[in-house]
Amino acid sequence: MIQAGVTLAQARLALPLDALENRILLCHALRLPRVALITQSERELTLEEAVRLNGLVERRLAGEPIAYIVGEREFFGLPFKVTPAVLIPRPDTELLVELALERLAPQQRLLDMGTGSGAIAVAAAHTRPDLAVTALDVSDDALAIARTNAAANGARVHFVRSDWFAGLGDDRFDLIASNPPYIVAGDAHLSEGDLRFEPVDALTDHADGLSDLRTIVDGAGAHLATGGWLLLEHGYDQAGAVRALLTARGYSDVQSWRDLAGIERVSGGRRDA
């Protein structure tokens, strides 16, 4: 336990986490920017600061994700507010954003399905203000957080409460992107690491891991403009199955793309008619 009176330098060395997590929690507990850990290294912690820091460290040692403890995670170079109501944005999903932006011409329309924190929609709208971006989610709590993130990052996004396509009417888009629940029910990973703290309905479809992906592939054609793309993030071993779903529905240019770890992480295809 960190005691009042220790210096920032001493606290940083004494904390039981890895160096990055020590720094993040120390900055958060003391409400200091990173540079202050250097410029104020001999500053002593007050009792209140020590108590607050120890509380944060205890939460992390119990397994709670850093992002939920500090309430924020960076994605696509932007800060995103996160709470246990939404998934923590992950670097793997940046591939989905990059692929979408590459395929969208000026002024085109993007739909982000199951937006959660708003990471995909906000990142796209911030990077390309010319786009007309719509984001949907069935969770009111998630939509509230996504709206906050859009406002904080100056991104223009239209939000819709919808259970997949149910609330879209006849709207059509030039590209639909989604990172839906795709973990198989009962998968051991759901009870390990950060996933223990994340919203289970955003992680698993409570079935074979493909049911929500099927729903999106089956329904997307009615909401895609001719030549529009459907891009889906999926599990490490699901690329072949998702390509088969897209091919069966008549999509062309069906392919998968690998993330930085070399895993086929996103699959997609184009609607020709």
From TrEMBL:
Membrane-crossing residue ranges in chain numbering: none
Top-level EC class: transferase
UniProt EC number: 2.1.1.297
Alphabetized Pfam families for the sequence: MTS, PrmC_N
Protein's UniProt keywords contain Transmembrane: no
Catalytic activity: L-glutaminyl-[peptide chain release factor] + S-adenosyl-L-methionine = N(5)-methyl-L-glutaminyl-[peptide chain release factor] + S-adenosyl-L-homocysteine + H(+)
Biological process terms in GO annotation: methylation
Presence of keyword Methyltransferase: yes
Domain Release factor glutamine methyltransferase N-terminal, first and last residues per copy: 15-71
Record GO terms (molecular function): nucleic acid binding; peptide chain release factor N(5)-glutamine methyltransferase activity
Keywords: Methyltransferase, S-adenosyl-L-methionine, Transferase
InterPro entries reported in the protein's UniProt record: DNA_methylase_N6_adenine_CS, HemK-like, N5-glutamine_MTase, PrmC_N, RF_methyltr_PrmC, SAM-dependent_MTases_sf, Small_mtfrase_dom
Domain Methyltransferase small, chain residue ranges per copy: 93-186
Binding site for substrate: N179, P180, P181, Y182
Binding positions (S-adenosyl-L-methionine): G114, T115, G116, S117, G118, D137, W164, N179
Family to which the UniProt record says this protein belongs: Belongs to the protein N5-glutamine methyltransferase family. PrmC subfamily.
Function (record text): Methylates the class 1 translation termination release factors RF1/PrfA and RF2/PrfB on the glutamine residue of the universally conserved GGQ motif.
Protein's name in the database: Release factor glutamine methyltransferase
Organism per entry: Massilia aurea
